[in-house]
Amino acid sequence: MTPPPTGEKMDDLSLPSEIPVDEDYGLSRDLDYDDGSAYSIASTKYNFTWENGRLYHDYKAGHPFPYDERSQENEEVLHEMMLYIQDDKYFAAPVDGDQLKNVLDLGCGLGLWSEGVADRYPECNVLGVDSAPRNDPIIPNCQFELADVTEEWLFVNPSTKFDLVHIRSLFASLKLEDWLPLYKQCLDNMESGAWIEQIEVEIKVYCDDDTRKPDGELERLAEMTQVMSSTHGAYFQIAENMSTMMRDAGFTDVREAKYKLPVGWWSADPKYKEIGKFFERFYKTGLQGWLMHIWTKSMGFTPEAVNEACLKAFAEIDSRKHHYYFQL
């Protein structure tokens, strides 16, 4: 994300640095966050592959994460959570939205952010790019391109320079060696004074009190991402390293802000409680998809082992005994 200049302090979410605990958390386990909404699978005009009960797209080398109803729900939850965290703002970069002319959304997925920005700022042109096919946009000043963002950008008119580049949740979508060239290509296609904003979840579990479970499953799975990165090549640690890489690519005034994401509604603070509900849903709708392909194709696990790990992690959350959080 885009944080304050070096040396300037930013309070995370304008909330206490320690997350207050709701003492009633754990006394009730009948909350249901599933509203029964149906999510349609995107256009299948390109090739897809079924694998272990999940749908993957086949564009070029494909993607280690599935592209199906559950993954789309996961993306929608993340989108709504970010709007909630940012008080219904689409970006934190210090730019005037009404002055934007050209905006680029890399790894746009369903295009929720792209279309949202295009709808809110009708005078700017928004281009969303992803390696998965996307339905035609319904907003006239928004368009989508099917492309691999790590290759030379043929989707950009040479005369077009972007005022804002947005990247969200591309962890494990790229290899480590792809990130620095991508940032350099972003810089080469941006206006002077433009901003790049990237939002990623750090794959590390935190706990500030004595509710941490020794040898807990959430922590084990987070630690496993190091092995997943080394065996498959998908880089999970971009959140911890993106600011350094941006500087190495030539960006100046690089800022970083961190937000706490409780796993569950255990906080007594109303805003943290809502964020916790969003993030629990995000984690539960995403976990199997983050693990399945890499564990079975690169690490020798069976699908049953993946599902068992997910069930253990969910049981750990559902016990309502642990005050875990991740950082954005």
Describe the 3D structure.
The protein has 328 residues and is an alpha/beta fold. It is 34% helix and 16% strand. It is built from 7 helices and 10 strands. Strands 5-4-3-6-7 form a 5-stranded parallel beta sheet, sandwiched between helices. The chain is globular and about 55 Å long.
List its salient traits:
7 helices, three-stranded antiparallel beta sheet, SAM-dependent_MTases_sf, 328 residues, Methyltransferase domain-containing protein, alpha/beta
Strand order, largest beta sheet: 5-4-3-6-7
- Total of DSSP H or I helical runs spanning 4+ residues: 7
How many β-strand runs? 10
**How much of the sequence is in beta strands?**
15-25%
Q: Percent helix among the residues? A: 25-40%
SSE sequence, one letter per element: EEHEHEEEHEEHHEHHE
Q: Runs with pLDDT <50, length 5+?
A: 1-13, 28-45
Distance between the termini: 8 Å
> Shape from CA axes?
globular
Could you report the average pLDDT, rounded to the nearest whole number? 88
The major β-sheet equals: 5 strands, parallel
Radius of gyration (Å): 20 Å
Secondary structural class = alpha/beta
